[in-house]
Amino acid sequence: MADIATFCSTIHGSGIKIRNDYLLNKNTTTRAHPVLSIPYSRQRLLCYSYRGYSNKKTHTRQLKSKPKHPCLGNLLKCRAVHDDAAAEKQSKEDISRATLLWRAIKLPIYSVALVPLTVGSAAAYLQTGLYSATRYLTLLASSVLIITWLNLSNDVYDFDTGADKNKEESVVNIVGSRTGTLIVACLFLVLGFVGLTWVSVEAGSMHSILLLASAVICGYIYQCPPFRLSYQGLGEPLCFSAFGPFATTAFYLLQSGASELSIDGTVISASLLVGFTTSLILFCSHFHQIKEDKAVGKISPLVRLGTEAGSKVVKMAMVTLYSLLFVLGLGQTLPFSSVILCALTLPMGNLVVSYVEKNHKDKTKIFMAKYYCVRLHALFGAALAAGMVAARMFARKQLPEAIIL
């Protein structure tokens, strides 16, 4: 063992010093060093692993014996290899349970329930001056229940296909019960739809319940068998329709008090913008799971395009979003105040584009791209709604005609 200790530090016999940092900073480095004869059984003890905390790589030292040199003895080849698979596994182990629970809850994603309702209500206030706080809160609670059903059932059916096999933040993997998760999801769906139906009946708007039912159906065929249209790459169009024209328009009708289907260009324009930013969240959520999706036959747009082309799509989508905003403003379809306030979110849009362009190949970092899109979605929706409220208040220069509590 004395020979082994001598070799691991400094080989005094030859005056050669092996520097660990040199070997560890190379992907594959090979050096041959003459040492005294060491039995093969003892040479194996010289192999060890090292994990560099600075770059979170796992390195393995391997020694191979060469034929005995007449003067120098055995030549041992030292090979340092970094192990990316082991590093990725170690990285997953470093994720705390609290972080996994936070990711499973997906609290920021619930902005997709808040934004269509807020924008639809603001559009109703712009047109009629009416606003019902009770109705707003009831619709918000019901929408949150529907989104919870979407998230839970999506985890269940992705678990069935194997798409979430290695997804540690999957609710099914955390809870350990596929059936229990599905039962809770269905309960949330029933409660949420009862709330939406109750408000629609109270408002006397059957068109609203039809629009909301269409939005829920889009969510069902997106992920649930036998349809699973998300596996065919149709998730983004379904998401756009559900949260944009269907949900936003329905909420507008419920807050406006109109029993008949009477919508104008402002409502349609606002719903298109809401659907656009919502779909962008879904698109960016696929960047970090291309390998898993491809393995189970889930052909998302990013599986077809790849991450580099996908980053260009994100850039084009952002240009389209703000171009559409200004076109609608010039056409006076949207209030000028909404255009100005939404334009102030442009730095957030630039941040999304730059982040995706820089990190689209990094599976760990690109995970955050969807959350940057959530921030953009929430800010853009809030600006759009605030602009419509401001347009009404400055136009009339008086309090709202009616606030129903």
UniProtKB/TrEMBL annotation:
- Compartment list: Membrane
Q: What is its main location?
A: membrane
Query: Which residue spans traverse the membrane?
Result: 107-127, 133-152, 180-199, 205-222, 234-254, 266-284, 313-330, 336-356, 376-395
The UniProt keyword set, sorted, is:
Membrane, Transferase, Transmembrane, Transmembrane helix
Q: How does it sit in the membrane?
A: Multi-pass membrane protein
The keyword Transmembrane helix belongs to this UniProt entry's keyword annotation: yes
A GO term from the CC aspect: membrane
The record's section on Pfam families has: UbiA
**Which InterPro entries does the UniProt entry name for this protein?**
DHNA_phytyltransferase_MenA, UbiA_prenyltransferase, UBIAD1
Taxonomy, superkingdom: Eukaryota
Respond yes or no to whether keyword Heme is given for this record: no
Q: Name one GO biological process term.
A: ketone metabolic process
> In the record, what terms sit under GO molecular function?
transferase activity
- Kindly give the HAMAP family that the UniProt entry links to this protein: MenA_2
Its protein name is Dihydroxy-1
